[in-house]
Structures are given as structure tokens and as C-alpha cells.
Amino acid sequence: MSNKNHYTVTLNKAGDDLSVCYWAFDHLEDAKSFLSVLKRGCTAYEVSVSITDEKQKLIDAWRMGDEDQKGNVILNKSQLC
Question: What are the residue ranges of helices labelled H in 1-72?
Fold first, then answer.
């Protein structure tokens, strides 16, 4: 039996009940590296990206910016889109 941790990077759009998409990682460092790439994105929609562990604990989250406003860190799950 494996005791591996699993981390999920999730992309959410405000107003949508379901996640737009998600990616699974075995290592937190890989999930953080991928989130770092997504954080540099720009969108016309209200979109957030987050990392959670296998217990759905929020590890890191970011609200993406647009051409007029920089993205910013999200401090708790209630701020996710």
C-alpha cells in the first residue's frame, strides 16, 4: 500500500459550479512549479488557481489578473472563484 501524498492544482472560473480543469501531482514541488507558471497568465474572466492536498487543505492560491490589474494571492478558500 502506498502512502504517497497527492496534490491537486485546480483552475476555477467565477460563476461556474464545477472546476474548469485540474492537474494531479505526487510531489508538492511539482504542483508549486506548475502553479507558478499559471500565475503568470492573463484572463478576461475572474479565475483562480489553487493547490490543495489529498485532504482538500488549501496550500497556495492565486487570483489571476488581466491587462489592467495584477493577480494577487488568495488567503483562504472563501476567496476562491
Answer: 28-39
Distance CA 5, CA 30 (A): 12
What pLDDT band is residue 17 in, cutting at 50, 70 and 90?
confident
Query: What ranges do the domains of the chain cover?
Result: 7-79
Other C-beta atoms closer than 10 Å to the C-beta of 49 total 27
**Interval 34-50: pLDDT, tens:** 999 998 888 888 899 99
What's the rounded Cα separation, in Å, for the pair 60 and 32? 8
Contact 63, 74 (CB under 8 A): yes
45: its cell numbers? 474572466
Q: DSSP 3-state assignment of 16?
A: coil
